[in-house]
């Protein structure tokens, strides 16, 4: 009895339905039935190119089980489903022969690697497939360069979330979901919390699959959603398609993402006011600390490598309850609604900062051109780029702090609904912390009025509200 393994692969699955690999599998199973072979394993890589060099889990599993001698035949729809890289084909052929696999069958014919002519034919076929993929890749890149120059979106691949298949019109339900997600991210909410909301609301990717953290994070940072054309990692102009968020919001998202790369937020936040309390004695951050008999406190960071005095503390649940009530009250004030609605001054400053960023990036390009033309030396180029990079970072940081207001608009003016939302079992500490940060700069904890007193004095707690 011949024990066979089937391997199927599809480079691009635009619809995400797996029909391409499904059709390959049907034909390969039919081939096995016609020959009386027993299929003992099936391996699949859907929506994965065999030319790009990206990891193919199904292919790797097949190789490992082939090495272990679990089957003595391999069935493919066509040889190019196996690989389009000559070097990878040589590795496969060597392992195929070492495992003493007897049959290499495709729906278009068989190959016997033990015979030199057949192996030569397979090598030529692999080289031709690589050349075909390379030529197609060059054509696609040239086509997308031309589209980018005209302000058109990238062609090929899956439909972008929020847009129709041609990328030129909005899918309103998805666009609204992305807009809400961007506002929440700007306000400081973790991506994992946004992902859970998508899951709860039944919002799926364009292929119908569940969201992954990396996919959602990458999508939030994409310039496409601000109608910006990007090629080879650089913004080269504005697109002709409608934007879902403003360029200002896109800059805020990028700034926050860069900050998160430097200082990773705690994944398992357990205290509501983490990162928000300041010691009234020395001004440094207070951290949460568990007590031996239960409960916890916030205490001025006493670690030896920090400048905190370690002499200030307050009961965690008492200050958290006080600040939560204060924030809910503030969100219900008419004045805050007026302040959030009137964003003209802030938007004007944002436009000025965006113009500054554009000028700084132009100056970087000018420096590079001057170096290429021999007008400045390498050390002058490096010094100039470093100075401009510092200015870009400072400007981007300021731009990122300007507007958390869009994330607040849906929360203001309805105290009852907000209280219900706050106490909802699905409301995470991360999301509560993000809402608090949107209206609160920090909280200063002052000295207790009476030395050694055990009663909680709310006068010790001074919230510093955002302007």
Question: What does the model show?
Answer:
This protein has 467 residues and is an alpha/beta fold. The chain folds into four domains: 3-133, Rossmann fold, CATH 3.40.50; 172-262, Putative Large Serine Recombinase, Chain B, Domain 2 (Hect, E3 ligase catalytic domain fold, Alpha-Beta Complex), CATH 3.90.1750.20; 277-338 and 408-465, no CATH class; 344-402. Helix content is 48%, strand content 14%. The chain has 15 helices and 13 strands. A five-stranded mixed beta sheet has the order 2-1-3-4-5, sandwiched between helices. The chain has a three-stranded mixed beta sheet with strand order 8-12-13. Helix 3 runs antiparallel to helix 4 (116-149). The longest helix is centred in the N-terminal third of the chain and has 34 residues, at 116-149. 24% of the residues are buried.
Low-confidence stretches: 262-268
Percent in strands: 5-15%
Indicate the mean pLDDT: 80
Strand segment tally: 13
Outline of the structure:
It contains 15 helices and 13 strands. With 467 residues, the protein is of the alpha/beta class.
What distinguishing features does this structure have?
467 residues, alpha/beta, Rossmann fold, Hect, E3 ligase catalytic domain fold, 4 domains, 5-stranded mixed β-sheet, 3-stranded mixed β-sheet, 15 helices, 14% strand, extended
């Amino acid at each position: 009895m011949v024990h066979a393994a089937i391997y199927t692969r599809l480079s691009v699955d635009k619809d995400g339905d797996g029909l391409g690999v499904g059709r390959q599998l049907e034909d390969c199973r039919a081939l096995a039935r016609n020959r009386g072979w027993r299929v003992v394993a099936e391996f699949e890589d859907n929506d994965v190119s065999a030319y790009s060099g990206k990891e193919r889990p199904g292919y790797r599993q097949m190789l490992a089980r082939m090495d272990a001698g679990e089957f003595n035949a391999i069935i493919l729809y066509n040889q190019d489903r196996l690989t389009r890289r000559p070097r990878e084909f040589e590795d496969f052929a060597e392992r195929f022969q070492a495992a003493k696999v007897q049959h290499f069958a495709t729906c278009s014919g068989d190959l016997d690697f033990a015979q030199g002519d057949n192996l030569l034919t397979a090598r030529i076929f692999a080289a031709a497939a690589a050349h075909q993929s390379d030529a197609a890749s060059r054509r696609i890149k040239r086509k997308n360069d031309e589209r980018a120059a005209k302000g058109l979106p990238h062609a090929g691949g899956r439909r972008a979330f929020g847009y129709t298949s041609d990328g030129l019109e909005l899918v309103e339900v998805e666009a609204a979901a992305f807009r809400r997600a961007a506002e929440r991210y700007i306000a400081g909410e973790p991506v994992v919390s946004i992902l859970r909301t998508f899951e709860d609301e039944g919002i799926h990717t364009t292929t119908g699959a569940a969201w992954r953290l990396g996919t959602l994070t990458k999508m939030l940072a994409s310039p496409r959603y601000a109608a910006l054309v990007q090629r080879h990692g650089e913004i080269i102009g504005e697109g002709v398609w409608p934007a879902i968020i403003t360029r200002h919001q896109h800059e805020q998202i990028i700034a926050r993402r860069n900050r998160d790369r430097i200082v990773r937020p705690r994944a398992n936040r357990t205290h509501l006011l983490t990162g928000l309390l300041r010691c009234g004695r020395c001004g440094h951050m207070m951290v949460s600390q568990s007590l031996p008999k239960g409960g916890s406190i916030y205490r001025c960071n006493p670690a030896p490598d920090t400048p905190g005095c370690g002499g200030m503390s307050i009961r965690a649940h008492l200050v958290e309850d006080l600040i939560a009530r204060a924030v809910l009250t503030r969100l219900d004030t008419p004045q805050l609604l007026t302040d959030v609605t009137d964003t003209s001054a802030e938007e004007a400053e944002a436009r000025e900062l965006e113009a500054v960023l554009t000028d700084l990036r132009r100056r970087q390009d000018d420096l590079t051109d001057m170096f290429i033309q021999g007008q400045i030396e390498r050390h002058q180029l490096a010094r100039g780029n470093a100075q401009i990079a510092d200015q870009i970072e400072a400007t981007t940081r300021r731009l990122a702090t300007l507007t958390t207001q869009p994330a607040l608009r849906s929360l203001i003016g309805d105290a009852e609904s907000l209280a219900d939302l706050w106490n909802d079992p699905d409301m995470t500490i991360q999301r509560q912390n993000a809402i608090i940060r949107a209206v609160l700069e920090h909280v200063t904890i002052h000295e207790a009025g009476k030395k050694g007193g055990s009663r909680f004095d709310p006068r010790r707690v001074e919230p510093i509200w955002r302007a």
